[in-house]
Amino acid sequence: MSRGRRRAIRVLIVLGSVLAFLSVFAIWIERQALNTDDWVSTSGRLIHNQKIREAVGNYLVDQLYENVDVKKELEDILPGEASELAGPAAGGLRQVAGSGAEKVLETTTAQELWEDANRATHEQLLAVLENKKEAVETENGEVTLNLGSLLTNLAQQVGIGESLAEKLPPDAGQITILKSDQLKTAQNIAVAVKGLALLLSILTLAAFGAAIYLSRNGRWVTVLYSGIGLIAAGFAAVVFRHIAGGIVVDQLVKNDSVKPAGEAAWSIGTSLMVSIATTVIVVGVLFAAAGWLASPTGTARTTRRYMAPTLRLHATYVYTGLAILVCIYFLTGPTQGLRTFLTTLIIAGMAAFGIHELRKQTAEEFPDASYDGAFGHTRDKVVSAVKDANIPERVGEQASKLRLPERRRPGNGEGDAAASEAPTTTMPVSEEDARLQRLEKIGELRDKGILTEEEFAAEKARLLGGDSSS
Q1: Is 253 inside a domain boundary?
Q2: Hey, how many other C-beta atoms are within 10 angstroms of the C-beta on 5?
Q3: Which of 143, 241, 313, 449 has the most CB atoms at less than 10 Å from its CB?
Q4: Overall number of domains in the chain
Q5: Which of 233, 210, 234, 236 is nearest to 223 (CA)?
Q6: CB 174 within 8 A of CB 145
């Protein structure tokens, strides 16, 4: 290849690796921020975390006491002189509510209320980002997470729920997600990200595909390095997530007591990013394995010899198996619309092209490939190993020791003497003839392509005992 083509291939591999790294974040944002089911699933895992439950419980107790005069409520409930104990009772009730809030959030009812609140908020957010008519106007409204139902549920657990719920203001337990002056910017970002995830995924595979196409005779090297690039992109995304987590939590969470919950929320919220990066790494490993399989190394050639009969005689089954794997992925994998569909089809197309090229390569190397020929080499090695162990000779020696003396037949003395002088065992083939036959056999195996030149030379040297003059 010319220097310019080699340089273009390197640039395409590096570009594809960078695009794969960016694709991880674009896909994560699209699925986490713009898919309600994914967000609700993540929020469910958030509330199952002890540190996050503790932080949410403390927030709900604070909201309860900030929005309602619990002391006055107790004074109205307690009869007579007992009303004087309302102050200490309110303080004690706060301690009880604080210690019991986490246990309340462990209940199925509270967790369902939490998921319902997150679903409603995310649907409201999507309505705003998609600029639907029924959504909040960007000039006047806000997107909030309404935990009022959880606040009421907590109040019921401390014994004054019904009367307290009537006194709670409408904005109690509401957490602002986006303010009105931020919504327009969020809409623009959502539109860009939604298209960017699809674009980056296709451009990543297109860059690697172009590099492989330009390589021609050295395609296996390009496929191998493409796989290494994908693996590096996946690991880089995981490392970046770890580094960014510390920065984000430090910037957004100023209260040190809440930082453990913030770190847990970041870890759970970005776990989908790790899953996407892992998928990129797996695809990279498949690319690298395909590159190695097409390489001229001895182990790869041996592997191709075993695969050649299947690729030659049962190509239809091979392509059908690939189609079945793609269908299984579509049925059991994540359904994320057009991006996942197109990306999977492109990868499947590249896999089909790789199988086609592998069939061509094995057809050139092993034109008469058959199962007997592919596995006959292994069988010959086993037979050779048995011969090296001198098992037949040892058996013969043991048999000769156990052989009974022959009975003399009546006749003249010369016949008896000749019979007695005759050897008890005869060698049907001399050792030198057996060696020549073995050399002829391995020569035939080399001519048929079953043995490589290196394997032929090694077997020949072994038979000749390392002596070239033999």
Answers
A1: no
A2: 12
A3: 143
A4: 1
A5: 210
A6: yes
**Please, what sign has the CA dihedral across residues 10, 11, 12, 14?**
positive
Alpha-carbon torsion, ordered 144, 147, 152, 154, to 10 deg: -150
Amino acid making up residue 347:
I
Query: CB 28: neighbour CB atoms within 10 A?
Result: 24
Could you tell me which residues are beta bridge partners of residue 146?
174
In a domain, 145, yes or no: yes
In a domain, 380, yes or no: no
- How many Å separate Cα 338 from the centre of its chain? 21
Q: Which SS3 state, helix, strand or coil, does residue 79 take?
A: coil
List the domain range (segments joined by +) for residue 79. Answer: 33-184
Contact 118, 144 (CB under 8 A): no
Neighbours of 450 (CB within 10 A): 20
Specify the pLDDT at position 418.
Answer: 45
Q: Which of 140, 153, 127 is nearest to 60 (CA)?
A: 153
Separation of alpha carbons 153 and 114, rounded Å: 11
pLDDT 10s digits, 170-214: 667 777 776 766 777 777 777 777 778 888 988 998 999 899 989
| Per-residue pLDDT at 238 | 94
Instruction: Give 294's contacts (C-beta < 8 A, 6+ positions apart).
Output: 219, 220, 223, 300, 357, 358, 361
Residue whose pair of structure tokens reads 């899953």 in the numeric block: 275
Which residues sit opposite 144 in a β-bridge?
Answer: 176
Contact 57, 101 (CB under 8 A): yes
**161 within some domain:** yes
pTM for the whole thing?
Answer: 0.68
